[in-house]
């Protein structure tokens, strides 16, 4: 049977009881709509026996849904009163499942160890750090096989963008180093309290079975950063700093089979990996 989720009345009561006022700096917009939680859970496509990592559980809207759908939930929350309250909320609304929840009071950007290897990431991410958190977790926890995150809609578009698209950029390439990324829907503002100024998007990712290439990730990412730092420049010019000089960049690009007159926004992650491989062969 479907278990009750937190609606506007419960969320407000919890916030009042804790004496908290949602803060913008921590991206605190709490979901007050059970249907949105059900949508997120369905889009996450959790299998049997999953250990789900949730970042920013807040007052627990999504956490309760995850407790119903997962074997274990590890929730990382930076705000102490919220982290302290969450186990009590789980006890109150999911007494028979509360022991599946582990709460860690920490900045998700700094998490290095978790009590269990997470198989999935399901989160309504704090908007101001959504991309760095996602990339950090994908890099740090290879056990994360798939996930569904809610982010600002423009960030969702950017993460899922293909080469040549206007919004294709650093987040698109770096995310696709790890995973296949797709946009899985749009969420209106009114499902949150307080309502944010802009709509949200759902992003689904599935980790690649095979790495893109056998090459140092940091060398690839440095080339990506350089290519997009000067978006309007040719790769030969934009990668001059990365390669040591424009001439060296030109040679590396030629060796990688990529036109030095091309722009970075046209290249996919495989092409960036080839550039890094050629750079490594040239001694970078
Ligand atoms: N999951 C809840 C929901 O859907 O109602 C809350 C989502 S709210 C958009 C983002 C949450 O992330 C807040 O609870 C905030 O305190 C927390 N947060 C912000 N920055 C964080 C960070 N660096 N690490 C962990 N949690 C963070």
Word description of this protein:
The chain is an alpha/beta fold and 284 residues long. It is built from twelve helices and nine strands. It has helices at 8-18, 34-44, 61-69, 80-93, 130-140, 153-159, 170-178, 217-229, 235-238, 240-243, 246-255, 269-281, and strands at 30-31, 51-55, 72-77, 101-105, 120-124, 146-152, 179-187, 192-193, 200-207. The strands form two sheets. It has a seven-stranded mixed beta sheet with strand order 4-3-2-5-6-9-7, with helices on both faces. It has a two-stranded antiparallel sheet with strand order 1-8. Helix 5 (130-140) packs parallel to helix 7 (170-178) and helix 7 packs antiparallel against helix 8. It is elongated and about 65 Å long. The structure holds S-adenosylmethionine. The site of S-adenosylmethionine (SAM) has 23 residues, from strand 1, helix 3 and strand 3. S-adenosylmethionine binds at residues 26-31, 55-58, 61-62, 76-79, 82, 107-109, 124, 126, 129.
Approximate strand percentage: 15-25%
Low-confidence stretches: none
Question: Considering DSSP H and I runs of 4 or more, what fraction of the residues is helical?
Answer: 40-55%
What is the averaged pLDDT score?
Answer: 97
Short descriptors:
16S rRNA (adenine(1518)-N(6)/adenine(1519)-N(6))-dimethyltransferase activity; alpha/beta; RNA-binding; binds S-adenosylmethionine; cytoplasm; EC 2.1.1.182; rRNA_Ade_Mease_Trfase_CS; 284 residues
What order do the helices and strands come in, and which of them pair?
Elements: H1 8-18, E1 30-31, H2 34-44, E2 51-55, H3 61-69, E3 72-77, H4 80-93, E4 101-105, E5 120-124, H5 130-140, E6 146-152, H6 153-159, H7 170-178, E7 179-187, E8 192-193, E9 200-207, H8 217-229, H9 235-238, H10 240-243, H11 246-255, H12 269-281
Parallel strand pairs: 2-3, 2-5, 3-4, 5-6
Antiparallel strand pairs: 1-8, 6-9, 7-9
Helix pairs in contact: 2-3, 5-7, 7-8, 8-12, 11-12
